[in-house]
Task: structure prediction
Amino acid sequence: AQKVTQAQTEISVVEKEDVTLDCVYETRDTTYYLFWYKQPPSGELVFLIRRNSFDEQNEISGRYSWNFQKSTSSFNFTITASQVVDSAVYFCALSEARNFNKFYFGSGTKLNVKP
Amino acid sequence: NAGVTQTPKFQVLKTGQSMTLQCAQDMNHEYMSWYRQDPGMGLRLIHYSVGAGITDQGEVPNGYNVSRSTTEDFPLRLLSAAPSQTSVYFCASSPGGAKNEQYFGPGTRLTVT
Result:
């Protein structure tokens, strides 16, 4: 079974719209980490955020915000007032306490922001 | 710091050939990993290492070998390339412990014909 599901394969929005990227995870561990990475068209992978399972506080960083809900096993990512530079593939990932070095990635959501 | 470096950036192999993808990091990270990225499948872990001399298998290890003789280097060997190994390969490193976010290299695009 997939440990990380990103059901949205591709999303298109117009600049300045808000957009939410969904991430649902599955684990039996009580201690785990969740991550978001960005992969712009140039291909590199850029770390955005890490969240541990004991910290359900939402986080905001500029136009980016993350909503972690253990009750629904979700870790959603919202971009407010999207910009063309936000166009990228976004990956959600999970690592578990049994082995923090093993990352499980979702299949990614491609975000197209049109001017 | 150069961060995580990978060579080559692009490679074309014929079926049956072998080669080594190089990965190095200058951040003194204990943990290093290799992933492959295929369309629609995200990144899948091939092999990882928790320190010099220690390696373990990930999700898709078949057809690949690794070794870690130094903290800095973590090469990935393709023993006998197959078209199914056509992919983009990423190397990553992380400090480990409470700061386990992974930092990725620029990737190697491999085509096997």
